[in-house]
Amino acid sequence: MEYCIKQGWEFQIIDETTIRKPYLNNLKFLRAYKERLPEPNHIQMVIKILSKHSLTFDELLNLLAPSDQEKLSWIPVIWYMVVNHLILVDLQTPISADMMLQLP
Fold it and tell me: Which residues contact 93 (CB under 8 A, 6 or more apart)?
């Protein structure tokens, strides 16, 4: 803690009793996608769409993929971008199809 003070950092000990339940559940869900690097052109396509306006998860997915089979390949791309802060979401509320997605 002394090192943090010398660096001018704020230090807090946080455990599961401090973190709100939806937030912790969302992080647990998203961690599986942290290292699943998608194709760069997929990331660029999502950025291009979201650069125009914010969308819900479902709206974005429907724009990216017309078929259910194609949607299955886009879902990990979106979650990768969320967990790596390329897309902003409110992680204090449970992850859902109507959650709003936007660029940082």
Answer: 22, 99
